[in-house]
Write a structure and sequence with these properties.
- The chain has three domains: 44-85; 103-267, Methanol Dehydrogenase, Chain A; 276-393, Neuraminidase, CATH 2.120.10.60.
- The longest helix is centred in the N-terminal third of the chain and has 18 residues, at 2-19.
- A hairpin with a 4-residue loop joins strand 26 (358-363) and strand 27.
- The protein has 393 residues and is mainly β.
- The chain has four helices and 29 strands.
């Protein structure tokens, strides 16, 4: 609700400012005044923390990014991190970051920095851990493809060189979870074709209880190679990428689940039948993973539930469309149209089955509990779910 209140306040401020706009003598005066009207960019990256008692936000002081928190009860702000106050450990270079994550206890910040792009969205980066208690900044991994703090806040999972690892925040130990990664053969990472087609970079997911990591294994070794030429420099540069044209074999994928406590691994018994497995989601059902399947034409979708302890699977939903089915919205920047709340025994799916995109609620038997939105408009995404109030935002 506080998130909704914050949005409403921003809208009201915008309306108020719009009402105070200056009247200009001519169209040319209005065009030429653009620079003078540009004000402070204000806070960005607003994120509720600590059970919504505070929120964090970012802003810039000169060229330095800063992270602040705001306490709702005391109406006070606190600066928790500024790039200008830190250097890369062992150097005289000012620290800078591309993105960050909070740990669940809000005692640490995990920074992504030194990002080196590979494809449209993906790349390798270094990760640093910052302690809010003792103000130390420590490198924990170099050249990792992805990294994410576990839901219980005790570990950082990451992918590097085609394999998966965890880093224990308490002990500082790294544990390797897979070992067969190689050129064009990845654990927890997609190749170019899948990333470009379905928008995801991170090909693995923590379970809600942090007990498991589910992941895709991708084999591109038999995919034909396409050569790209970059003519922007004085001399052309060449890049090769596995690119399946019409009729070619796509990358071979399979789904695995790793027990992060003992490192044991099992493969899900699932044949994609020449199609895709573009999304996986952990559900509120214990030890249960949802797997989305689509045919190659992307006009036929099935949703399966896997019990990762027993290996059993059940198809609970199927949908067909005369054109195609979206499982993410590229133009709106929304990577997911399925939503599996941790504290609800149902899930939501945004479908355009009636020509408009609307929200449908299902139980875990595959029964439609109801169509949540209706009307001649499209729903782009669900921003927040409040199970206690049975409210969607």
């Amino acid at each position: 609700m506080r998130k909704l209140t914050l949005v409403l306040l921003l809208v009201l401020m915008t309306i108020t400012l719009s009402a105070q706009k200056k009247q200009y003598d001519s169209l040319m005066d209005a065009f030429m005044s653009g620079g003078a009207l540009r004000g402070d960019r204000g806070p960005a990256g607003v994120e509720w923390i600590e059970d919504s008692d505070r929120y964090s936000f970012t802003k810039r002081e000169g060229r330095a990014q800063q992270i602040w928190t705001y306490d709702i009860k005391t109406e006070s702000e606190e600066l928790v991190f500024s790039e200008g106050d830190h250097k890369f450990p062992g150097t005289e270079n000012q620290f800078s970051y591309r993105s960050f994550q909070w740990t669940r206890d809000y005692k640490f910040l995990l920074f992504q920095t030194n990002f080196k792009r590979i494809w449209r969205y993906s790349g390798n980066a270094d990760y640093y851990l910052y302690s809010l208690e003792d103000k130390t900044l420590s490198p924990i991994m170099e050249g990792a493809f992805t990294a994410e703090v576990s839901p219980d806040g005790k570990k950082v999972g990451y992918g590097k060189d085609g394999n998966l690892f965890t880093f224990d925040l308490a002990s500082g130990e790294h544990t390797q979870l897979t070992s067969d990664g190689a050129d064009k053969y990845y654990n927890g990472r997609f190749g170019w074709a899948n990333e470009e087609e379905f928008g995801l970079v991170q090909a693995w997911e923590w379970s809600y209880d942090s007990k498991y990591i589910a992941f895709w294994q991708t084999d591109e070794r038999e995919v034909p190679v396409y050569q790209l030429t970059d003519f922007s420099g004085q001399h052309p540069e060449y890049m090769e990428l596995p690119y399946p044209k019409v009729g070619d074999n796509p990358p071979v994928e399979r789904l695995g689940v790793i027990n992060t406590a003992d490192g044991s691994k099992q493969w899900l018994d699932f044949d994609p039948e020449g199609g895709y497995m573009p999304r996986i989601y952990w559900t509120s059902k214990e030890n249960t993973l949802a797997v989305v399947w689509m045919n190659r034409a992307q006009d036929h979708l099935k949703l399966y539930l896997f019990n990762v302890e027993t290996g059993s699977k059940t198809m609970i939903m199927e949908e067909k469309n005369y054109a195609w089915i979206d499982i993410f919205d590229f133009f709106a920047g929304e990577l997911h149209l399925f939503y599996f709340p941790e504290e609800m025994d149902s899930f939501f799916w945004i479908s355009d089955r009636d020509e408009y995109s609307h929200i449908y609620q299902y139980d875990y038997e595959g029964n439609v509990l109801g169509q949540i939105t209706t009307g001649p408009y499209d729903v782009a995404s669900i921003k927040a779910i409040d199970p206690a109030k049975k409210a969607l935002y």
